[in-house]
Write a structure and sequence with these properties.
Elements lengths: L3 E14 L2 E7 L1 H4 L7 E5 L9 E4 L2 E3 L4 E7 L3 H7 L6 E8 L13 E6 L4 H14 L4 E7 L7 H4 L4 E6 L6 E2 L2 H8 L5 E5 L2 H14 L3 E4 L15 E3 L11 E3 L6 E3 L6
Parallel strand pairs: 8-9, 8-12, 9-10, 10-11, 12-13
Antiparallel strand pairs: 1-2, 1-7, 2-6, 3-4, 3-7, 5-6, 13-16, 14-15
């Protein structure tokens, strides 16, 4: 899979709620190679911002050559992106990282668990798993801060959807594990993306239940291609590049088997 850097046209941009934005890009060279769980680097058009911003893939339309990015405005770079409109362009590098191992779900019920801005990358995974194995084998458990349930309705054609909110306004009050337990949900494989405390709890849950747990790590990145070692996590194995117990999230990840890394 060859990454490419291209000038991409923005096809649409909208605010889903609060500081969450959805952008469609026309990038046939990248979309044709992309799989659920990967990400792209977006480059600012402001020369003072040298480092790209990594954003996960929310939807992939390979035949149309389009990618959807759903992101939170968190700083100057993403603020700049949120102010762009259809017809504008961005430099994009991708596809980057590895994706979720979908073959692991064959013949099994799968949990897809997203927390906060870790929800968007689970949507394409839900679509592709439902297409392969049927909607009845896919259960999405989505964790939000409050009643702003961005993307929830878009999961429903592809998964049975359960919601946890921190403030208890909708669904189970608490976190995604609270929802799993409250609803008596079960599965044989787990895929997740979200904040580290959530992933740490899910790793422990996988250990208790014997469910293989594949997690996508969120991390600030610099180069996005594994050269600078700015985004590393501790691993059980010695990394062949750095010769220490590290994994490069941008290149070796962002998806890892939870048992292989320390959180």
């Amino acid at each position: 899979m060859a990454k490419v850097k291209v000038r991409a046209e923005i096809l649409s941009q909208e605010c889903l709620c609060g500081d969450i934005y959805s952008m469609w890009l026309n990038v046939p060279q990248i979309a044709s190679q992309s799989v659920p769980g990967q990400f792209v680097d977006l480059y600012s058009r402001d020369g003072s911002r040298l480092l790209p911003r990594p954003i996960s893939l929310c939807e992939i339309r390979r035949a149309e050559g389009r990618l959807r990015l759903v992101y939170r405005v968190a700083g100057a770079g993403t603020k700049e992106f949120s102010q762009m409109k259809a017809g504008d362009w961005l430099e994009v590098l991708g596809p980057l990282g590895n994706g979720f191992p979908m073959d692991e779900a064959e013949g099994k019920g799968a949990f897809l668990i997203g927390g906060g801005i870790g929800i968007p990358p689970m949507l394409e995974l839900a679509k592709e798993l439902a297409g392969r194995y049927g909607r009845e084998h896919v259960t999405a458990v989505l964790g939000y801060r409050d009643s702003q349930l961005f993307l929830k309705e878009e999961f429903e054609p592809f998964a049975k959807v359960y919601v946890a909110t921190e403030d208890g306004s909708i669904g189970t009050k608490g976190n995604v594990l609270d929802a799993i337990r409250a609803e008596g949900l079960t599965a044989k494989v787990l895929y997740a993306c979200g904040p580290t405390p959530m992933l740490r709890a899910l790793k422990a849950y996988g250990g208790e239940t014997g469910i293989p747990c594949w997690i996508s790590l969120e991390e600030k990145m610099a180069c996005g291609i594994g050269a600078c070692l700015a985004c590393v996590c501790q691993s059980k194995d010695v990394d062949s590049h750095s010769h220490v117990h590290n994994k490069r999230i941008c290149k070796d990840g962002p998806v890892f088997l939870a048992d292989e890394i320390e959180l």
